[in-house]
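Hi all, long-time lurker, first post. I run a small reading group and we've been trying to get comfortable going from sequence to structure in the token notation. Rather than ask abstract questions, I figured I'd post a concrete chain and ask someone more experienced to write out its structure so we can walk through it together at our next meeting. Sequence below, copied exactly:
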Amino acid sequence: MSAHSKKSIQPDISLTVCGYSKVLEIISNKWTALIIYALEDGRIRYGEIGKRIEGISKKMLTQTLRQLERDGLIRRDVTPSIPPIVAYSLSPLGESLIPLMLELKQWAKTHYSLVEQARAAYDHSVSQEHS
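-- Answer (accepted) --
Happy to help. Here is the structure in token form:
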């Protein structure tokens, strides 16, 4: 029996322990990534974030901003006025994600067309199998 037999393989990737899964838990939501991109250039008001991100509902924007604030990735600043002015900015922890997010963005620019080609080829082959 080889060293890589099914009996000898022990899980080495854990949803609760693995560092990758912990990071993905934070940034894998599409709205999270888009909000981080929106805040990349500095402080921005709630309404402006909503205008910059196509398709985000007020509910999703609010929920995602709260989660990012809870995670320590953004700061929420309230200026007392009537109505109050609420603006958001990346915290130093959030800013530390920018280089990684930019690498993902560059990867998408460089490689996403290949993903689309692979999907089309796969879908074509599956449709041929079922014909």
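A couple of things your group might point at:
The chain has a mean pLDDT of 89.
Helices lie at 19-27, 30-39, 46-52, 58-70, 92-95, 98-129.
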